[in-house]
Every structure is written in structure tokens, then in C-alpha cells.
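worker-3 :: picked Rhamnulokinase
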Amino acid sequence: MTLMKLLAIDLGASSGRVMQAIYNGHSIQLSEVHRFKNEPMNVNDGLYWNILHLFGEIKIGIKKASADGIPIRSISVDTWGVDYAYLDQNGDLLYQPHCYRDNRMGQYEETFYKKISKEALFDETGVQPACINTVLQIFADLQEKPHLARVAERVLFMPDLINYLLSGVLSSEYTIASSSGLLNINSQTWSDCVFETLGIPKKWFGEVIQGGKVLRSLSPRITQELKIEPFDVIAGAGHDTAAAVLAIPYASEQPTAFISCGTWSLVGLESQNPVTSQEALAANLTNEGCFDGRYRILKNTTGLWIIQELQRDWRLQGEDVSFAEMVNLARNVTNNRSWINPNDAIFAAPGDMEAKVKERCHMTNHPVPQSKGEVVRVVLESLVFAYRQTVEQIESLTGQKIEQIHMVGGGIQNELLCQLTADVSQKPVLTGPIEASALGNILAQLLTLGEIKDRQTAQKLIKDSEKTKQYHPQEDSDLARSYQKFQASMKVGS
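worker-3 :: C-alpha cells ->
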């Protein structure tokens, strides 16, 4: 077949990329075309994303991708969840989208949960109640700016907003909507209960698109500006974790947990059915949507954030320690007996991370780590203990025995983390691809266009395109025994 070029806009909460995929009918060759920063802006009344800047960078990436003369077939967008923008009756942006780290929601939480309890909200939507969730953000907006009910005509989540700027078509893609707290967990459509209880106008949201849809060709204004030929804009897997999960080349039909590992780690399981019991609520599990309509039962846990912050702190102190050096230092520590709760709120804020780790060890009567290697080892072992606990919670609540774990994302380049995950869980761990979100974005486009027929074909395509690596658990591992001590002294995920 003729080579086909597809573009993936992969936006994270700190950076964005335009990725290019060349598809030859048998494999995908992925490369980065353009990378740019994405930082929220402090304005007088809050924290906002600069969507106009981001869109300008996206256009630069599209222009670069067209330079080699290979026609672009389509483009799609994946981003983080929960954030959104308001449009007026003319389709114009009312103001820049708020960032989920904005603090406006806190003062309205009590009022919000008086209208709908956490238990009722979780039972209705399957989404773990959290201050950053779309539903609470919109409720806060309506308290602060009641005129929105009159002047706003549409709400678009971040990937839907960028698709709109590219194509002029309004859409509501399922995977990104599924994390909002606005969908009924069973019908996978907008929840009348939530809208009516909280006074949110249902007219703001369009029909939910599931399984991908070609929206329209790239806007003529953009094709003229960039001097390029038009191509399709696709609503694919808009949520970056849904995209990443779509790209997992599962090794067998056995129940397999996934870990999408980066700054944060998403630990979960794909399932035909959601889990909305009060036990799941207490375990901090959430239910989000997959591209094919299934569910991702998962927990958002700390990933390599603490490690990244340790590196930043040491650099500020004049010591430039690479990630590879940090891993080697930790690998040489063989007698660790100290652990932390990596999900403790104290580790969420940046700065003084080494001191925070040592303080928590002291407070929980663990030996205080002294060397850099000991500090890193404490963090890595604690992370994989938290992974195992989440896997066990999912097993208990779904009744499924998980036989193996598949890890994707940038964190899998830390081979010590992957081996520790195998040793602690006592399950085989398979890793790859690193660029899971971008590849899942591309797969969603190929499925929507009919170039590949189903999920099994997509998995084979990834296996033929990307390298994977397997880690076998060490039998009779001290780490597996240490996990019991960790459980006894910590309250991970509580």
C-alpha cells in the first residue's frame, strides 16, 4: 500500500507534542515533529490554560509535518482529563479554560456535597469524587459567574475544543467525557440526575461520540494559512490514558493489569463492567471509558513525581544527578527497611522532597535514609508496594485473579522500577510501548478510518512496530515479604 501519514496531537499538563506516524499496512513508524511547553497562567481571578498559544504551536507542528511531501491522511487529539472551555452562541471562546489546579473549587465543596453526596455521585457516575473533577469545576463556575447559564451555549473538553478549532465541528468524545463526573456509568450518556440536581444546563453538551468519528476536513482557513492540503479531523481516544490503554499489546487473554507510568501512575484493569460499590469508593478506585466502550477500573497513584522532584532539588543544590545515576545508586542498596506512603498529600507539592521523605520515615518509626541511593530506593520500593496494593484491591472488587501486569509510558525506561514491580507483585511484567498515548491516538484514527478492523489487529500492529520487554519475578523475594510490613505500617490510598 501507499505510505499513510497520520498526526497525533498529544497534550500533557506540562508539555505538548505533535507526533507523526507513517503507516505501511504492517507497522507504524512514530516520530516527534514538534514539542512545546504547556504551562498554566496566573491571571487576576485564577489559573488558566493558554489555549490560543497551544493552538498556535499545534499549527506549527502541522506545518512541519507537511514538509516531506507525504500527504497527511488525518489528525486527532488526546489530552489530560477534566478541563474544558465555554463557547457562546456564535461559537466563540468566552474565556481561556481554567486549569484543574485552580483553587476556586474548594470554597464550594461543602455546598456541592450537600446537593449530592459522594456516595450518590459515585453510584451514578462511577467517577471518584475529587475537587478537580469537571462536575465540581462547573458547579463552582456557576456560583461565581451565574451569567454563564445565560451566555454560554456549549462546553467542550480540551480535546474536543482543539478538534473544534481545527475543524469547526462541535463534538463530545466518550473517553474524555467519561472522567467528568457528568455521565451515567451504565448508559454512558449524560446523567439527567447530575444535571438536574446541580442545576447544570444539559444543553451545554452534545451527543456523546463513541468508537471514533471523522468530524470534517481541516478548516479551509487553516489550510490556506499553512499552504497545505486538507485532511480529516477525527474524534478518537480523547483521554490520554484511554489512548495509552488502546496501545497495550496484551500478551495473552489472561486478566492483565495495566500501569501507565510517568509523573503519575494509572494502575488499572480493562473490564466489561464498572465497579461502583461503596468498597470501591473507599478504595479510591474510579471508572473511566475505553475507546471501544469498555471500562477502565483504575486508581491514579503517584508515579515518578517524587523522583523528578528529588532530581530537581539536588540540581538546585549544585548536584546534577541523572535519572540513570539515581537508578544505579538505588540498585546498590540491598537492605532497605524504610517506606513511605507515596500518595501522602505532603508529596503533592513541589520542593524539599528529600526532607519530606526523611521526615515521613522518621514519623513512621522507619530508619531514616541517609545517602541519595537510600532515599531513591525508599521511594521506588514504596511506589511498587502501592502498585501491588491497587492491583489487589482491583482483584478483590472485581473477583478477577490478575495473572500479569503490562506497563507503558516513559516510566518503563526505569528498568529497576519494572523489575521491582515484578518482584513485589510476584507476577510477570511486560513493558512497552513508551509512547503509548501517541500510538493509541494513531490506532484510534486507523480504526475510525477502517484501515484496521478491530482491537486484535491493533494489538498485532503494535507488536510488529514496537519492542517489548519481559521481567520475571524473583522467587522467594525479600521484597514480597517486606510488602506485608509495609501494609501494616502504612495507609496507602486511604
